[in-house]
Every structure is written in C-alpha cells, then in structure tokens.
Amino acid sequence: MASLMSEGEAKSAAAPARAVHDDEEKKEGEICAICLEALPRFGRGAVWFMCCGKSIHKECELQFDNSRCDKNCPMCRAPPASSLEQQHTRALRWARKGKAWAMVFVATYFLRGRGVSASKEMARLWFEKGAEQGDPDAQYNLGRMHYKGEGGLPVSKEMARLWFEKAAEQGDPIAQYNLGLMHSNGEGGLPVSEEKARLLYEKAAEQENPYAQFSLGRMHSHGEGGLPVSKEKARLWYEKAAEQEHPNAQYNLGCLHYFGDGGLPVSKEKARLLYEKAAEQGLPDAQNNLGVMHFDGEGGLPVSKEKARLLYEKAAEQSYPEAQHNLGVMHDNGEGGLSVSQEKARLLYEKAAEQGHREAQFNLGYMHENGEGGLPVSKEKARLLYEKAAEQGYSKAQYNLAIMYVYDQDGLPVSMEDAL
To answer: Residue 318 contacts by C-beta under 8 Å, 6 or more apart in sequence?
Structure first.
C-alpha cells in the first residue's frame, strides 16, 4: 500500500544598468545624490549607476522610478545601457578606477557570460580585487569559488571558511548561512557545532534568508543546536521560508497541516496546496506525498491512480525510495494505467531496498522467498531482507522471519527460541 512520508529534512546578480547592494554600514564621504544623506558602506542598500558611478538609496530609486521622469540617469542624464556588452563596459570602467561594487559586477558578468565571454578565472581575479577592499559580496563569492575549486583554484574549504567569516562579520546573510552549514558539518577546519550553526542561521534568518529560515525551523522541530523541541516555532520559520518559495519549507509546512502539528488544525487541503508548490519545483518528497493524495483521493482531490503514478515516476527518477516503492507496488498490482509486471516491480523494490526502505525490503524478500519477479527461489536472500526490515520494526517482516525460524525450507519445525 502507498505510504506518505512525514517531515523531512551565485549571489550578486547583475542588474541591467544599475548595481544594487544591501548593507547597513556607512562610509564617510559617500552621499546619496538625491537626498544627500550618507550611503551605506560598499553601496549595500544603494543603487549604483554605471554610467556616472554615482549612487542613490534604494528608497530614493523607488521614488524616482514611480515618478513620471524618463529612465535616463537622474544625475548625468545618460540613457540606460542598450546591451549587455555596454553594461559590462560601463562597469569595467569603474572597476578599473578601484570601485569595489563595480568589481563585483564585472566578476559576475565574467562568471555568467553576460556581455563578455564566460571566464571563471577572470571572475575569480575580480572577486579577489573586490574582496581585498572588504566588499562582502566579493568575499562571499570568492569563498564559494574556493569551496568548489573554481576559477583555477584548488578546493579549499579552509580558505572558503575564512572568506565566509569576513563576509558574515559584515552581516552578509548568505555568508552567515553557509558558514553555519560549515559549523554544522564540521568543514573548513571547524569542529561540528550545531550551537554555532544555529546562531549564524538566526542572524541570516532575521535578514529574511529563506535557507536559514528553513534550517532554523528544522532545528526547532528536532530540538537541535541547543533548542528545545518546538513544532510551533518550527512552523513560524517554515511559513516565512515558504512565502519565499523555499520548496523544503513548503513541504514541511504541508506535513504540519496534513498531520495537524505545530499548533495547526488538520487541513489536508492546505497540505495539498503546499505539496503542489513544492512538487512544481521538483522536490521528490512533495511529489511522492502529492501522489499519495491523488491515489487516496485526499485534500479535495478525486481518486486518480494515473496522476499518482506520474508523480511517483517523477520522484522515483530522483532516486526517492518511498516513490520507488510506491511505483513498484503499482507495477506489482497493475494500477495507474500500468499492466502487471512483477519484473518492473522487483527492479524498483531493489532500488528502494538498497536505500534502507523497509517495505521495499519486505516485498523484495517475499519475491525471493516465492520466486517472483524473475527471481529463483532463495530462502537465504529472503531471510536477509526480512531481517533488515524487521530490525526497523516492520511487523510483517518480523512475522515472516518468525515463521522461517520455526520451519525450515521443507516446512519442518526448527527453533521456537529463535522465532521468539
């Protein structure tokens, strides 16, 4: 029978003609060309015009855009760049004059091949220049290249950590999140520390980083990082991340609605809507659970084994064991528009069993015991698979294993002690 799984588990994009950053620190000497107030350090929280190199606050830029003025630069009156090549040329001019914000954008253009031939080596060189000037975007991106061994660099998680730390100290939320991951995994020369990871996730989550919000929600859900278990706090963080289309948060929030957890009443309709959003983004957990809802006709859906099969297939293609098992059952029974095929069922059970799926281990054991799915009879292989499933508390496997202990291959009594 199909089963439903419970709760699981290059930054600096270039603007067409303007460069946007988000920091709060101020730097003397830099003022907004509109309101004449001080601009934040490195231009974060500001918009830079690549034509003249001047900058305004984001709020001032919004007011300008909402006005009836044309889209020419409000300072030098230059028209917007007419091509990606012109954008790159304008940014390069300011980068060569030592402007860190422009260095980040030139590096990003090289990284993505925007208006220039893609070159990770050139991207790395410009990120290095910006990082040396203390730009947090450049520091984060340089750390990422060290982590992945890109741009002519060898893989060095230690160097990645050092650059993430520099960017995180300046309040960069993505660097804070990635540094938290390194503490959680014990990477970059760090010992495993869920507590330090949690502190960094909290800083990034407060800045609306959806990945940190999701990770913090999981910590509250499982009582990790020095936190007590709190499904209610987990739900609040999942909601924040789900609003930003984080698929895992949508899935976990869907599970809370489905089971009526985290202070929520049971609502399979709300669960279904969240599973749909996550499934559309390719999350196999959500595809499987949505398939189960189609199979059983839940959440306001009519029964449709065909739609269930299609969703199981998508998740199974991503090696999701629950979906592999569920799809195997459909092949076994000839459901969802499929003809009966024990051979295809066996292949799917094997894939799921290799990942420790207990129902698949039991079904595969049964096939070995009875010589189904193109297999010869093998009581030994059946016993081994029943044992694996039984160790995970699967009662059907425990029962079959007990019968095997009581009777040998010829149906003769053997050992009641082993059976018990």
So the answer is: 282, 284
Cα 156 from Cα 312, distance rounded (Å): 39
Token pair in block for residue 121: 């080596």
- Any bridge partners for residue 68, and if so which? none
The pTM assigned to this predicted structure is 0.84
- Assign 46 to helix, strand or coil: strand
Compute CA distances 116 → 17, 93, 347, whole Å. Answer: 15, 14, 48
Cα dist. 5→10, 193, 256, 307, 352 in Å?
32, 28, 12, 18, 14
CA distance 18 to 40: 16
192-217 residue pLDDT tens? 999 999 999 999 999 999 999 999 99
The CA-based angle 135-208-41, given to 5 degrees, is 25
- Tell whether the torsion through CA atoms of 23, 27, 31 and 35 is positive or negative: positive
H or E segment to which residue 40 belongs:
strand 38-40
Q: How far is Cα 97 from Cα 50, in angstroms, rounded to an integer?
A: 12
Tallying the residues shown for the chain, one arrives at 420
| pLDDT (tens digit per residue) in 340-389 | 999 999 999 999 999 999 999 999 999 999 999 999 999 999 999 999 99
Q: How far apart are CA 37 and CA 384, in angstroms?
A: 73
